[in-house]
Amino acid sequence: MNVDIGDVYGNVNNVGANATFHGPVDFSSNSRGSGPAGSGPASRRPRAEVGVLTVIDPEIQAVVAVLRQLDEFRERRLRHGPTAYEASVPDRWGRRVRVAAVKSLQPGNESAVLAYQGLVEEYNPATVLLVGVAGGVNGKVAVGDVVIGDQVILYDHRRVTAEGSRHRGQAQAISAELLHRLSEFSVAEHDQQRSFRLHRGPIGSGNAVVTDVDSEIRLWLNDFHEKVLAVETESAGLAQAFHERVRGDGVRGWLPIRGISDTADADKGHDHHPLAAGHAAVVMAMLLPYLYFEHASAEPDR
Asked: pTM for the complete prediction?
C-alpha cells in the first residue's frame, strides 16, 4: 500500500498553531560560569520534556517526517552512538515542549531497555514515548488504526510442563499523571476528523512475534484481559526499565503509541509499516502539547 504523505502528516501543521513562539530552544549543554559548553563541572546535560523511542526504519522515518514540521528541528549525534532528532512545539499555554527521538539498534525488549537508558541519561525527559507499529489482536482495531497503550501485559513469563505452558501474567499500567493527560487529550480531540481510528487500552508485549490467530499467546492474552488490543515486542522492556530505575531523574512515565500494521496472523508482513508508523507519529505530535511537566529535580552537574 502506498502512503499518502499529505493524509498522514497533514494534521501536524495545526499543532500549537495558536501559541506564541518564545525564540530558539537550546538542547545543548547549558554552561554555568566560564569555559566552553559541555566541558568541565560547570556544564549540565541537555534536557527534553519528551523522549521518543523507535525500533525499525519506517518508525524513525515517520517520526522524523513529523518532527521536521515542528519548530527548531535539528539532528545531533549522541555520545553513546545514535543520532537524535530534536524539535519543539508550544503547549496550550505557550511553554515549549522539547522532544528528542532516537532509534534502538534492533527490535526486542532488551534493545529497547538499552535505548531507554541512553535516552534518559542524555535528555532526562519527563515522558518517554514508544512510537511505532504493532499487530492488532482485537476485532475493534484495523490496519491503520492507532492504539495508545495504557497498560502493558508481559506474555513471555511462563513455566513449560509436560502438559503445556503455564503463563505467569504480569501487567504494568502507565502512571496516573499520564492518565490525566490522556484524559485531557481525549476530551480535546474527541471531535477531530482523521483518516484512522484512535483507541486506548491494554497491549501485550514480549519477545515472541505473533503470526498465528490461534497461538497460545493470543489465547492466553484474551483470557488474561479480554480487551487487549495489540501485540508488539518492546513495551514490556520499557515498562520494566522505568519500574526498576532509581528515581534520581525527572522521568514521570512512559507511553506506547502503536499504529496497527497487521492483525498478528499468517498474513503478517511489512507492507503496511509506513502507513501504521505514519499514523502513530501523527498521534505523537497531537499529544505533545499535553506532555509538559515541570521536572521533578534540577539537572545534575556533570
From this structure: 0.81
- Reading the block at residue 224, the C-alpha cell is 488474561
- Considering its fold, how many domains does the chain have in total? 1
Query: pLDDT tens digits for 63-119?
Result: 999 999 999 999 999 888 889 999 999 998 899 999 999 998 777 777 888 888 889
Phi-psi region of 124 (alpha: psi -120 to 50; beta: other; left: phi over 0): left
- Answer yes or no: is 19 within a domain: no
Whether residue 89 contacts residue 99, with contact meaning beta carbons closer than 8 Å, is answered with yes
C-alpha cell at 78: 549522541
Cell readout for 175 is: 502512571
Could you give the CA distance from residue 101 to residue 84 in angstroms, rounded to a whole number?
Answer: 5
Q: What is the CATH number of the domain that holds 174?
A: 3.40.50.1580
Closest to 206 in 3D by CA, of 150, 163, 168, 243? 168
